[in-house]
Amino acid sequence: MALQCAHCYKHFSIAKVTESRGKGLSVEVQCPHCAAWLGHNKSLALAKIAGFYGGVIAAATGYFVDGTATITTPLVILAVIVVGLSHIMDHLKMVEAPADDASVANK
Ligand SMILES: [Zn+2]
């Protein structure tokens, strides 16, 4: 999986990341090129998780409970859209600029 740095706009592999901090949704990684700290948008990550589980629950309800398919089918479609949109919009954002910002700007 390739990530793009929000500070220097270079692409890097998640395997190249040597520094990380935080846990779960608030995990932050350090760009191997410019040392800026990068994190995910937490509300988007929550929307993705809520959409995913909401879709799974709606699909299971529609499958196991008779007569609910007319309600659950649009919910499943909505959940797929929410997950898809939050995935597209989920970019890394800069949490903290690197200490040697000037040296990056001059390149
Ligand atoms: Zn960078």
Describe the structure.
The chain crosses the membrane at residues 45-65, 71-89. Keywords: Membrane, Transmembrane, Transmembrane helix. With 107 residues, the chain is of the alpha+beta class. The chain has 2 domains: 1-40 and 92-107, no CATH class; 41-91. The chain contains 3 helices and 6 strands; from the N terminus they run βββββααβα. It has helices at 42-64, 69-89, 101-105; strands spanning 2-4, 11-13, 20-21, 28-30, 37-39, 93-96. The strands form 2 sheets. A 4-stranded antiparallel beta sheet has the order 3-4-5-6, with no helix packed on it. Strands 1-2 form a two-stranded antiparallel sheet. α1 runs antiparallel to α2 (69-89). The two termini are 26 Å apart. It binds zinc ion. Zinc ion is lined by residues 5, 7-8, 10, 31, 33-34, 36.
Number of domains: 2
Cofactors and ligands: zinc ion
Q: What level of helicity do the residues show?
A: 40-55%
SSE succession: EEEEEHHEH
Q: Which range does the strand content fall in?
A: 15-25%
Report the average pLDDT across residues: 88
How would the blueprint of this fold be written?
Blueprint: E1 2-4, E2 11-13, E3 20-21, E4 28-30, E5 37-39, H1 42-64, H2 69-89, E6 93-96, H3 101-105
Antiparallel strand pairs: 1-2, 3-4, 4-5, 5-6
Helix pairs in contact: 1-2
Bound molecules: zinc ion.
Residues 5, 7-8, 10, 31, 33-34, 36 line the site of zinc ion (ZN).
